[in-house]
Design brief:
The chain has about 260 residues and is of the alpha/beta class. It has helices at about 5-20, 20-25, 25-40, 55-60, 75-80, 120-130, 150, 165-175, 195-200, 220-230; strands spanning about 45-50, 65-75, 90, 105-110, 130-140, 175-190, 240-250. The protein is about 35% helix and about 25% strand. The longest helix is centred in the N-terminal third of the chain and has 13 residues, at about 5-20. The protein is globular. The chain starts with 5 loop residues before the first helix and ends in a 5-residue tail after the last strand. Helix 6 crosses helix 8.
Amino acid sequence: MSSLSARKQEIARRFSSAASTYASFADLQAAIADTLLHSCHPQGIVLDAGCGRGRESMLLSAHAAVEQVIALDMAPAMLAAIPAVARVQPLRGDIEALPLPDASVDVVFSNFAMQWCESREQASREIFRVLKPGGRLLASVPGPDSLAALRASGLLHINGFASAGDWATALMQAGFSACEFTQKDFSAHFVTVGELLHALQGIGANTSDAPRDNHLRGKQWLLQVTSALEQQREPAGLPLRYDVIFMQATRETGN
């Protein structure tokens, strides 16, 4: 994995650092994953691309029709946290350069991972390549309105996210057909700004594509963030919202 770009090395490092606390802060992602799993009928060889600590890999492996789940992630500490199960094979790797043979998996499942890819087109091509004819991709990614309140503060480095149309173009160019997209809002609430920021750090989501011009994190910065976010407070607490895009795409048997 030494060929990873500097950006991806940083992402892998942050997710590895978050591995021990990830489950504590990942309830929102788990709810999103459960929605994606509800529409998934896995069978054969399944690739869980960007598996994290393997929660979904374990759930996928419980299906009787599944022969094996390949649990792939860039972060070694995440892979190390996956329980040892006969039908789950941890594999360190990059979605944009999958260490798998052509036409070797029946289903690619990916929950909140593909947005970290540097090229939607390359990720789509790689997933298409490893899928068998007739194989399916089921994925979720944050949409462009995700974390809008945090981004609007101008004080936090939050990534911009691609639209469903952007993903549709990448998938169709890669050769996928029968692409379907749905979008749904998910939210979590926190009592304090500190808890919200801790949650972002705990799930490794504080890695931005933007240069860190304002990288200092002193008391003045925290006061400014607190003031900005407190304006967003709701009866349930401080909101953390994702606009989630759910994608399904098929590699036709003729290609």
